[in-house]
Amino acid sequence: MTTVEEILEELKEKIIKLSPKDAKIMDVQFEGPELVVYVKNPEVYTNDIIKKIAKDLRKRISIRADPSVLVEPEVAKKKIFEIVPEDAGITNIIF
């Protein structure tokens, strides 16, 4: 009998094989019916690559940035207020 961990490890190996060589995959997890792939450089995944992986694995796939490459919410909030004009009327930002 195979466990969830074994299935997840098999899927991770397949994802690594199907992914671009320069993809920095950090983790693969089930989140409900989706398979979420956490990577340090999500920009290397094009829609075509994601579609191919989903089709080959017969799973819904989401590519997300690894938390280690994300900016702190306060820094992001400050940057947003610098970029967006004041007349846009932003009153609150929730992350």
Give the strand order, joined by hyphens, for the main sheet: 1-2-3
Percent of residues in beta strands: 15-25%
Number of strands: 3
CATH architecture: 2-Layer Sandwich
CATH class: Alpha Beta
Task: Give the structure's gist in a few sentences.
This protein is of the alpha+beta class and 95 residues long. Helix content is 39%, strand content 20%.
What this model shows, in words?
39% of the residues lie in helices and 20% in strands. It is an alpha+beta fold and 95 residues long. It has one domain: GMP Synthetase, Chain A, domain 3. It has a three-stranded mixed beta sheet with strand order 1-2-3, with helices on one face. Strand 2, helix 2 (47-57) and strand 3 (60-65) form a beta-alpha-beta unit. Helix 1 (4-18) crosses helix 2 (47-57).
